[in-house]
């Protein structure tokens, strides 16, 4: 049975599609549904569906942007697009993302079933190719073993099936538990310079076989067994068997030294926690990758145990909540709220040790960089800071880190707002300004239509088409963004804030605010001030 993830922000459309799937008689079941892009990406990561149906217009991001994110990691999963717009630009982007089909709303059951059949055919074709590749690898056991190891660690095939095959090849017989995974990231020349390791020239590209040999020698010197595989051009993974935590760290040190001396390359190595069973190795692999990916803020050419990045998490709950709120306001391009939170946040950080300040601010920068990188409209505008993590790594004192990051967050928030406004026609930018300036009024869509000299029906349709949000959705979002901003000013009473954003009844405002944010206005202030 193939598992289908449906991503559409309209409940009735999702339910209709689920019914079509159930009545199709195909070997397809709806495993999950999502109404926004963030949920869709989380479900894709956690559940790895066999095929995905994406609505192009979603509340938080485009279905095409979701597809681009998925394609960065996965070239095989069939993607189908669903939209109310027959756009040549959309179709071209869908084709470039290797889409199986591009369906127009309202979709008929016949067209939908045909698209699902094509997705089934795509999966069957890919699996045949995989089987042929495995057959070719069997002629060379080292390559085949490497392929199987990646199948297990990256969960590309059922774990029990892969473990049986690796057992047949004797991989788990040599050494036994505990097992530890090392993720080795070979650094580019500029990263080696940033890490101040040494002056390196003539960097070599290590083959998978050569790196596996280095890993085996290093493990043997530490009293462990090693099996290596190449994940990508600059990433190697090493599975250690019969390795204590101390032996794993010694092996990582030996690998780093050998790569430096014999390949003239710097390498950062993430170390997972030890596990007792082969079935736990995918989780260990994820831990090793997460540890290695922290090298951008702990420094390049480092050995990074997973436990160390766990200990690096901010221990203060109120700081974490304030940071999450700031990220939300940066994503919304809400300058005033970002300023207000930064003022309070900077004062709290100033009382922490320098090491903890660096951990917190670097983690926040990583989150904010992802906001910029995941928003196509934002990426199109250049920013002054090409590598804020590198800039941050050069700072040594807490106050200068806080000052740099505060200025960076303000610029990013402004950059996000300007980027999102750039692609909107001038008349609709005026419409958005009008909405922000008239939150206290009850006129709503009819008053805006009169101001814009349009019919309410036409304005409603065009507003959604141009901005990606309906008039009501945008007005509601702006109301509560403005409310959060005003509530951060302790000199204002809740009743005053309610009136400014268009609520004559303070009690109703509190109910609506909690429904929208999960907190009452009083709880919000208590949490973030």
From TrEMBL:
GO terms for biological process: phosphorelay signal transduction system. It comes from the Bacteria. InterPro entries: CdaR_GGDEF (IPR041522), CheY-like_superfamily (IPR011006), Homeodomain-like_sf (IPR009057), HTH_AraC (IPR018060), Sig_transdc_resp-reg_receiver (IPR001789), Tscrpt_reg_AraC-type_HTH (IPR020449). Residues 429-527 form the HTH araC/xylS-type domain. This is DNA-binding response regulator. The lineage of its organism: Bacteria, Bacillati, Bacillota, Bacilli, Bacillales. Residues 3-120 form the Response regulatory domain. The keyword DNA-binding applies. Keywords: DNA-binding, Phosphoprotein, Transcription, Transcription regulation. It comes from Paenibacillus kribbensis. GO terms for molecular function: DNA-binding transcription factor activity; sequence-specific DNA binding. The keyword Repeat does not apply. The modification 4-aspartylphosphate is found at residue 55.
């Amino acid at each position: 049975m193939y598992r289908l993830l449906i991503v559409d922000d309209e409940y009735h459309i999702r339910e209709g599609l689920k019914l079509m799937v159930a009545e199709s008689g195909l070997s397809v079941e709806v495993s999950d549904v999502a109404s926004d892009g963030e949920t869709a990406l989380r479900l894709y990561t956690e559940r790895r569906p066999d095929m995905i149906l994406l609505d192009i217009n979603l509340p938080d991001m485009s279905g095409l942007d979701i597809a681009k994110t998925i394609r960065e990691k996965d070239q095989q999963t069939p993607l189908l697009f669903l939209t109310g717009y027959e756009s040549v630009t959309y179709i071209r982007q869908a084709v470039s993302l290797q889409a199986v089909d591009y369906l127009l709303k309202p979709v008929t059951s016949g067209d939908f079933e045909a698209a699902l059949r094509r997705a089934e055919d795509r999966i069957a074709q890919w699996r045949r190719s995989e089987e042929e590749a495995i057959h070719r690898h069997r002629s060379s056991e080292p390559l085949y073993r490497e392929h199987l190891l990646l199948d297990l660690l990256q969960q590309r095939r059922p774990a029990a099936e892969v473990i049986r095959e690796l057992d047949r090849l004797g991989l788990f017989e040599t050494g036994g538990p505990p097992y530890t995974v090392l993720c080795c990231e070979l650094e580019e020349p500029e990263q080696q310079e940033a890490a101040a390791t040494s002056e390196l020239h003539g960097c070599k590209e290590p083959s998978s076989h050569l790196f596996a040999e280095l890993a085996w020698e290093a493990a043997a010197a530490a009293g462990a067994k090693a099996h290596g595989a190449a994940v990508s051009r600059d990433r190697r993974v090493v599975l250690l068997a019969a390795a204590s935590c101390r032996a794993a760290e010694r092996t990582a040190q030996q690998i780093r030294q050998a790569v430096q001396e014999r390949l003239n390359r710097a390498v950062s190595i993430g170390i997972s926690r030890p596990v007792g069973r082969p079935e736990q190795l995918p989780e260990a692999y994820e831990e090793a990758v997460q540890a290695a990916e922290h090298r951008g803020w702990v420094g390049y050419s480092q050995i990074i145990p997973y436990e160390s990045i766990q200990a690096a998490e901010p221990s203060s709950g109120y700081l974490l909540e304030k940071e999450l709120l700031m990220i939300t306001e940066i994503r919304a391009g809400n300058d005033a709220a970002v300023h207000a939170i930064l003022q309070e946040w900077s004062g709290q950080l100033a009382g922490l040790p320098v090491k903890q300040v660096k951990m917190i601010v670097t983690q926040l920068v990583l989150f904010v960089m992802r906001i910029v990188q995941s928003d196509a409209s934002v990426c199109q505008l250049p920013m002054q800071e090409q590598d804020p993590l590198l800039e941050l790594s050069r700072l040594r004192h807490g106050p200068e880190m806080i000052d740099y990051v505060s200025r960076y967050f303000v610029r990013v928030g402004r950059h996000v707002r300007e980027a999102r406004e750039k692609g909107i026609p001038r008349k609709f930018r005026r419409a958005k300004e009008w909405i922000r300036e008239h939150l206290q009024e009850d006129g709503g869509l009819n008053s805006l239509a009169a101001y814009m000299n349009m019919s309410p029906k036409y304005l409603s349709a065009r507003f959604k088409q141009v901005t990606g949000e309906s008039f009501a959705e945008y007005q509601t979002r702006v109301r509560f963004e403005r409310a959060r901003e005003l509530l951060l000013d302790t000199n204002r009473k809740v009743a005053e804030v309610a009136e400014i954003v268009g609520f004559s009844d303070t009690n109703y405002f509190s109910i609506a605010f909690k429904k929208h944010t999960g907190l009452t206005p009083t709880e919000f202030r208590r949490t973030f001030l």
